[in-house]
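Sample entry follows:

_____
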Amino acid sequence: MIAHIRYATEGKVALENVHPFHREMWGIQWSFAHNGDVPLFKLDKGQEMPWLGKHDKKDRTYNPVGDTDSEKIFCSILNALKSEFSTLPSLPLLHDYLKEILDELVSHDKEGTILNFILGCGEHTLFAYSWPGSRPGSNVWNGLHYVVREPPFRQAALVDCDYEVDFSELAGEKDRVAVIATKPLTLNEEWVEFGRNELILFDEGKPLLASEDRMDAELAGHGLDSSVLDSAPLLKEDLRRHTVSKRSIFSGADIE
């Protein structure tokens, strides 16, 4: 579930500017919610949207409906992914190429960019990314934090009101959930702050921090799934067809 309570710093208050944004790509529903400020995508009406990735602009498929930088970022990410892959990428490959795109995006203005987002794609796959910061003249820090709730569940006290939730009454022994938020929402749980420029893939409520963890999720059948586009080929073949680091993807996976 993605919920976004938005303070309208960019774009008018209108239905077309409401997060999360949605698009279909490869027969998969993609969702995107963003908190931040990205100068590269602050465009005047009619100004061409920046292109990300290493392919030319002839492959532009996705365009914004509203006028937020958030939707423009989302469309640019999808255009870059669609131009790179002709079959469904494996999770390790998708993670590493998405990280390349984000490195490119942030490099245009590292000091002025604030980029925190959640990107959902399909039944299992959820990415979260943080390039934190504060807007000029503001002492509000915009970043991302997460907490994993799993057995044994316990009570959690909310930060902003005198109220506690007993998750042992709401969840079962086999449940696990990750909550991702701009700031910690509870007082007595171990929230983890994202590092600057950190991209994390979450699967079944678990953050997959290492390349071998993402490989395990792919091999467990939690990769992208589509009825209209061919599945990813064998991972060795996947690597041969795309220019992403072998070492980062195949580390610890017994694949050469």
